[in-house]
Specification:
The chain is α/β, with parallel strands linked by helices. The chain contains 19 helices and 6 strands. InterPro entries: 3'-5'_exonuclease_dom, Exo_C, HRDC-like_sf, HRDC_dom, HRDC_dom_sf, RNase_D-like, RNaseH-like_sf, RNaseH_sf.
């Protein structure tokens, strides 16, 4: 499919055009297809730079959320309408920022997972379910570009062109497999989920952190990461364009004493100006000067069970329970034709195995699963196999 059915609509970039679109979509019928384009890897943060919608009776709309940053009127007009998104959790945060928050949704990617499709990208799903090939060449472009080139707008319009058709076909397939109610519970959970909490110590997610062993080196990572983040936010560019994670880790490992030593490291080479080198060296010097009590801890406080690799030493009985439970859940997931992580979160399985209910009967295991956030359909499916695995592992330990 190379062209949207009604052609490429003009980009909405003023309040009058937006008001017309709001009225048109409020008057439309059926579900509304929604998508958003971000500039990941180019700009700071995850804001939306284009929003695409399509609804029966309203056609397709392409909205510039830079020119129209408040789309709450559109969100209000669609209140109660089912929104169809592909990989909803990726787009909902940036949509929420501009006032678009669904109360009901259908996630075509998640539907594909539950239905057992091996490839769940939008292009692959449209091709395997509807028989159309979508041109997918512009997914990773810089959507903050203005004006947006026509081929990009064509691609963006096509992303919502067939989304409701895909939703309808997947609904039929889920119903055929007896999984439609399961999918609805998953979609309701996504729609009802609160915005994610800001990540504590985000600098700890720097790629290559496993190489860092000493607290002084951790302080360098933290200082360089925070300096980079401030610069990236001020310049509105992706942090990786300011300084790479690889360079941050290299500097932390080397602890260079001056600009000359810093310039010799990977990532700080000949392209970097003297002023830039000096600002990174100043960050390193701040970390080097910290008194020991102010150095970051070598690990974050652990909530919940320890990493599974440590279970055999810490609690062999728990390790046996986890091994039995994982095998049972994997077998059930294969039987049901879906990825194991969609049948039940691996973290929930770990928590139940680390501190199993006593006795590990069906009622207690079901209550434990629900307390950790499993949906009712997951509790119903997983409880019998977990009870069996916990019981078998307990017998095995007893015989040992």
């Amino acid at each position: 499919m190379l062209e949207p059915r009604e052609g490429i609509p003009p980009v909405i970039a003023d309040e009058a055009s937006l008001a017309e679109a709001v009225a048109a979509f409020a008057a439309g019928t059926g579900p509304v297809a929604v998508d958003a384009e971000r500039a990941s890897g180019y700009r700071y943060g995850q804001r939306a730079y284009l929003v695409q919608l399509r609804r029966q009776g309203a056609g397709t709309a392409l909205i510039d959320p830079v020119a129209c940053p408040d789309l709450s009127a559109l969100g209000d007009a669609l209140a109660g309408t089912e929104w169809v998104l592909h990989a909803a959790t990726q787009d909902l945060p940036c949509l929420r920022e501009i006032g678009m928050i669904p109360t009901r949704l259908f996630d075509t990617e998640l539907a594909g997972r539950l239905a057992g499709f091996p490839r769940v990208g939008l292009g692959a799903m449209v091709e395997s379910v509807l028989g159309y090939v979508l041109e997918k060449g512009h997914s990773a472009v810089d959507w903050s570009t203005r004006p947006l080139p026509e081929p990009w707008l064509r691609y963006a319009a096509l992303d919502v062109e067939l989304l409701v058709d895909l939703r309808d076909a997947l609904e039929k397939e889920l119903d055929r497999q007896g999984k439609l109610e399961w999918a609805r519970q998953e979609f309701d959970a996504i729609a009802a989920a609160p915005p994610p909490e800001p990540r504590k110590d985000p600098w700890r997610r720097t790629s290559g952190m496993h190489k860092i062993r000493r607290r002084r080196q951790l302080a360098v990572v933290r200082e360089l990461w925070q300096t980079r983040d401030r610069i990236a936010r001020r310049r509105d560019v992706s942090p990786g364009k300011v300084l790479s994670d690889t360079a941050i880790v290299e500097a932390a490992l080397a602890l260079p004493a001056d600009v000359r030593a810093l310039a010799a490291l990977n990532g700080f080479g000949h392209r970097m100006s003297r002023r830039q080198l000096e600002q990174w060296q100043a960050a390193i010097d701040r970390a080097r000067a910290l008194p020991d009590p102010q150095l970051p801890s070598s690990g974050q406080p652990v909530t919940g069970p320890p990493p599974p690799r440590a279970w055999a030493d810490k609690d062999p009985a728990a390790a046996a329970r986890l091994s039995a439970a994982r095998a049972a859940v994997t077998a059930l997931a294969e039987q049901l034709g879906m990825p194991q992580e969609n049948l039940v979160s691996p973290d929930i399985v770990r928590r139940v195995c680390w501190e199993p209910p006593r006795p590990a009967d069906a009622a207690a295991v079901a209550a434990a699963l629900a307390s950790h956030g499993a949906r009712p359909w997951q509790v119903e499916q997983v409880t019998p196999v977990l009870v069996g695995a916990l019981t078998a592992a307990g017998r095995g330990q007893g015989q040992g």
